[in-house]
Design a protein that fits this description.
Blueprint (H helix, E strand, L loop, with lengths): L1 H34 L4 H29 L1 H21 L3 H29 L5 H21 L10 H12 L1 H5 L16 H7 L1 H27 L4 H28 L2 H24 L5 H18 L2 H10 L7 H30 L3 H23 L31 H5 L1
Helix pairs in contact: 1-4, 1-5, 1-6, 1-9, 2-3, 2-4, 2-9, 2-14, 3-4, 3-6, 5-10, 8-9, 9-10, 9-13, 9-14, 9-15, 10-12, 11-12, 11-13, 11-15, 13-14, 14-15
Length: about 425
């Protein structure tokens, strides 16, 4: 572990700063949208812009890097992300923010792709699992820390926007000063969504629905909390709990999924998540009546995150159970695009629920999304065959991972190692 940190400390520090800025930005924009009295539908559309940009960037970033190189693209995208967040503070309007969110998504997926490709280049079969684990821990810790930073500035002012810009700009320094040569990109094999569906219907459908609900969770939970008059401390604490609980859940749920039929674990996790969200509908209306109800509210948010947030990694592991290891990267890239397609629609549809029903519509949306995954998993258990011998193990994957980052899966051997 020490050797991994020593060889890649600059990348890890840069990633930590990037994820801290990203975590703060998501919370800040949601809370500020409520304070500015944006309609819920406008807020949902604006938040969806990030995932539109993410999808666009993931499709086109490799060709850009091939033309001008890693360093130039990273510097351009980090600088652009730093600039875009400042535009939010100058032009406070839903449409302006929507366009800015699209550019933020393009910048962030480009940055992730370059950082992950560097990790791949520096990893061997012996260290890939450690690199992926550190990457996931830093991603979630950075996001959670960024969410807590909301407590130290007023969202109505321009200072938190400047702080995000500073963090993003600082991330340039360690990565651009690294001595290692930029990695060489290999062409990613593609599996179309239809091809993936034939291989694993549950993997594809669950990935789309997982993107659908996870994008809403991470963009609109702060909006829900602000509309319910939570204090800034409570909003930061709530979103921090969600992020950390989801990260801690990956390992125990992954361990159990290696022992049992993964479809059963996907069904149980999603239906338990739906049950937790159902309880939160009622706790939401009485959260301020007593400290006990508020405590229960936090407990069920933790329980929901514990059940629901490992779903993306479960979907990936389930799909990999049906394919050979040489197609793991292609399958992971395809599922990531499926996730992004669902994520584009998630915040908008969730905002419709909240607009027509009220703040409790946020949890009703989660109930519908998680129940849909659970029922489809049960259906696939009836009509599909059981995988008797899995050819891979579960590995936790960060929610923000790119198609290029899928190569960090320790089950995937490098081309050189395959030839030995």
């Amino acid at each position: 572990m020490f050797k991994v940190l020593k060889n890649s400390w600059a990348l890890f520090i840069g990633l930590l700063l990037i994820m801290t800025a990203h975590g703060l930005q998501g919370n800040l924009l949601g809370v500020r949208a409520v304070y500015e009295k944006f309609s819920l539908i406008s807020t949902g559309i604006m938040m969806s812009g990030f995932y539109m940009g993410y999808f666009i960037g993931a499709k086109n970033i490799l060709s850009l890097i091939h033309r001008v190189g890693h360093i130039r693209v990273f510097a351009a995208m980090a600088s652009s992300a730093s600039l875009v967040i400042l535009i939010h503070s100058i032009y406070v309007h839903p449409f302006t923010w929507f366009v800015a969110r699209i550019f933020s998504g393009i910048c962030m997926v480009s940055i992730y792709t370059i950082v992950e490709s560097w990790f791949n280049e520096r990893s061997t079969n012996q260290t890939r699992g450690k690199v992926l684990s550190i990457y996931m821990m830093i991603s979630y810790f950075g996001m959670g820390s960024g969410m807590l930073l909301l407590n130290f500035q007023q969202p109505e002012s321009f200072e938190p926007f400047i702080l995000i810009s500073i963090l993003m700009s600082l991330s340039l320094i360690p990565i651009l000063l690294t001595k290692r040569k930029p990695p060489s990109f290999k062409k990613i094999q593609n599996l179309t969504i239809s091809e993936l569906y034939k291989i694993s219907p549950l993997g594809v459908v669950s990935s789309v629905l997982t993107g659908f609900i996870h994008s809403a969770i991470f963009t609109l939970l702060a909006v829900y909390a602000a509309s319910m008059k939570f204090t800034l401390v409570e909003i930061g604490f709530l979103t921090f709990l969600l992020t950390v609980s989801g990260a801690l859940a990956q390992f125990p749920i992954g361990y159990v999924s290696d022992l049992l039929d993964r479809r059963k674990i996907i069904a149980i996790c999603s239906l338990l998540g739906a049950g937790a969200a159902f309880v939160l509908i009622f706790l939401s209306s009485s959260i301020f009546s007593s400290s006990f109800f508020k405590f229960l509210f936090y407990v069920f948010v933790i329980f929901y995150a514990f059940c629901s947030l490992p779903l993306f990694s479960l979907n990936l592991s389930h799909t990999n159970d049906f394919i050979s290891k040489d197609k793991f990267v292609a399958a992971g890239a395809g599922l990531q695009f499926a996730f992004a397609l669902g994520a584009i629609a998630g915040p908008f549809v969730c905002s419709l629920f909240m607009g027509f029903i009220g703040p409790e519509g946020f949890f009703i949306f989660l109930v519908v999304g998680n129940t849909s995954i659970g029922f489809f998993a049960l259906y696939r258990m009836k009509v599909g065959s059981v995988v008797d011998s899995k050819n891979n193990q579960f590995f936790p994957i960060p929610r923000s991972i790119t198609p290029m980052g899928m190569e960090l899966n320790p089950a995937i051997k490098s081309e050189e190692e395959n030839k030995v």
